[in-house]
Design brief:
mainly alpha, 1 helix, about 0% strand, flat
Length: about 100
């Protein structure tokens, strides 16, 4: 009753295709070609980034937006921790006063 039953593998059904026959091919050597003449490598060129006043303003605006969003998230997380700690402290005070009041009776 508590022993697991393993499923049996069913036999394949349907049309079974025969394996494909692979015929060997012969390799004929070609005429050797001369290697191309080596060319001098081009000096690495870096793309020039030009900062226009518009792109500089966009970068400053984007950076400011990122700082504001990250700051808002961090402040909201700190506020959540503060509210949680305050509510736990109030619960602890209420429970302590209830326990002390019960011992006095």
């Amino acid at each position: 009753m508590f022993r697991p039953k393993l499923p049996t593998m069913p036999q394949p059904t349907g049309i079974v295709t025969p394996p494909a026959v692979i015929e060997p091919t012969t390799i004929t050597p070609g005429t050797p070609s001369t290697p191309p003449a080596p060319t001098a490598p081009a000096p690495p060129s870096r793309p020039v980034v030009q900062l226009t006043p518009g792109t500089a303003l966009a970068l400053v605006g984007g950076g400011t937006a990122v700082v504001l969003v990250v700051g808002a998230v961090l402040v909201s997380m700190l506020l959540a921790v503060t509210v949680t700690a305050a509510s736990l402290a109030i619960c602890a005070l209420v429970i302590r006063s209830l326990v002390n009041a019960q011992h006095r009776r």
